[in-house]
Amino acid sequence: MTNKKGCATGAFIGAVVGAVTSLLLAPKSGKELREDIKSKSNEYYEKTEGMREKGSEWVSIAKEKGSEVKDNVVSKSKTIKKKLTKKSKLQDDVETVLEEV
Prior knowledge:
Layout: H1 2-25, H2 30-100
Helix pairs in contact: 1-2
């Protein structure tokens, strides 16, 4: 997970540096350059905002699924415990009967 995050961060930083470099080296007036930089920065901001929203969605889904799994495990363990308790009680009853015989 950390390696993927680092790779994505590196790619993003590389894209930003490349975009800024191309804007700075392009033969444009100062006003045009500032407009291009503002436009690109808004574009990247919107992209990161979209990624942040998607990440929040994934976190919510993971929490929901985790809760479902936990509830399922708790339910199954209660069922198993009941069955084992019944089996243990039956075994105790059998032992009691055998002792009486």
